């Protein structure tokens, strides 16, 4: 048996599980492993240094799976923005069928992808942004709760509230993101109106994730209290793994008079974060992790993980929940 939802039918996958885009991590190794396991693997466009490198990575991924996979394009403000349009052109030229967009002002990119017949999933952290993305033409939304890794927005609203709100407010389907990593979570997401789940941190802790094993072991040892929110005073909150650098950033932000980004920039540079994944020192820099780390206890293959999540979800729905529905005559 499988769980068939609008997500599985619309993007042609077996299981309603998406591997979200992750900087430095969303490579062909991980994306193909997730897709081969029946989920939707996602390459992260900006992990590749140039659009042509993305083209090569797409082609490399196709040698590793014949199943559907997508590409993430995250749009963030920057002093020198990446060539987003050129990355988008490569996605279109290479015949990608599913794109995950995230970040600011996705309108022109959604339009380009839709004109090319690409299915667009846009990630949002609030209902107002979800309604905007729906109006701009997104096919599906990924509703990202406060539990998530990375940028949860500034409203601090958890998935338990956002998902039923989305079910009432939206006309297009959505998936749940932030705090998902096991079968009970998947069952809960479906019950709250989602068509599947998007997982980042949980896939970060798999055999195929292209990061140092020390970082995976750090997640296994972590509890639900081992993440931290930085950039709160800068109104650009980010959830990261709680380490020495994160604590230093928070201390700087709490100084009287507050802090400017320049005060913490050397500590939070992307180059330092990338080295965490390469050299295995969890305290070398900032790296994102969601509160789901509290529920991560092993480092499975993607195939084992996906099968386990789906089986747990089925057992929860058919075993635990259905068993609670009884005739009043039996009371």
From TrEMBL:
Pfam families: NMO
Coiled-coil residue spans: none
Record-linked Gene3D superfamilies: Aldolase class I
Protein keywords: Flavoprotein, FMN, Oxidoreductase
Domain of life: Eukaryota
GO molecular function ontology, one term from the record: nitronate monooxygenase activity
PANTHER family in UniProt: 2-NITROPROPANE DIOXYGENASE, 2-NITROPROPANE DIOXYGENASE-LIKE PROTEIN
This protein's name: 2-nitropropane dioxygenase
Native source species: Linnemannia gamsii
């Amino acid at each position: 048996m499988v769980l068939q939802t609008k997500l599985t039918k619309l993007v042609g996958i077996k299981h309603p599980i998406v591997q979200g885009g992750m900087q430095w991590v969303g490579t062909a190794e991980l994306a193909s492993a997730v897709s081969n396991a029946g989920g939707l693997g996602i390459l992260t466009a900006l992990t590749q240094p140039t659009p042509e490198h993305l083209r090569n990575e797409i082609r490399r991924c196709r040698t590793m799976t014949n199943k559907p996979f997508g590409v993430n394009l995250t749009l963030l403000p920057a002093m020198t923005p990446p060539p987003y349009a050129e990355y988008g052109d490569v996605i279109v030229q290479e015949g990608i069928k599913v794109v995950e967009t995230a970040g600011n002002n996705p309108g022109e990119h959604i339009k380009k992808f839709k004109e090319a017949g690409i299915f667009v999933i846009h990630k949002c952290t609030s209902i107002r942004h979800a309604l905007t993305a729906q109006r701009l033409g997104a096919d599906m939304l990924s509703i990202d709760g406060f539990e998530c890794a990375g940028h949860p927005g500034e409203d601090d609203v958890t998935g338990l509230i956002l998902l039923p709100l989305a079910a009432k407010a939206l006309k297009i389907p959505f998936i749940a993101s932030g705090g998902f990593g096991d079968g009970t979570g998947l069952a809960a997401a479906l019950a709250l109106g989602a068509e599947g789940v998007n997982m980042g941190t949980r896939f970060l802790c798999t055999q195929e994730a292209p990061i140092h094993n020390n970082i995976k072991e750090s997640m296994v040892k972590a509890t639900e209290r081992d993440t931290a929110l930085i950039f709160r005073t800068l109104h650009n909150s980010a959830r990261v793994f709680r380490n020495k650098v994160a604590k230093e950033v928070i201390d700087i932000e709490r100084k009287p008079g507050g802090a400017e980004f320049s005060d913490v920039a050397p500590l939070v540079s992307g180059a330092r974060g990338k080295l965490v994944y390469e050299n295995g020192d969890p305290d070398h820099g900032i790296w994102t992790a969601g509160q789901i780390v509290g529920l991560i206890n092993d480092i499975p293959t993607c195939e084992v993980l996906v099968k386990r999540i789906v089986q747990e979800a089925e057992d929860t729905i058919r075993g635990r929940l259905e068993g609670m529905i009884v005739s009043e005559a039996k009371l």
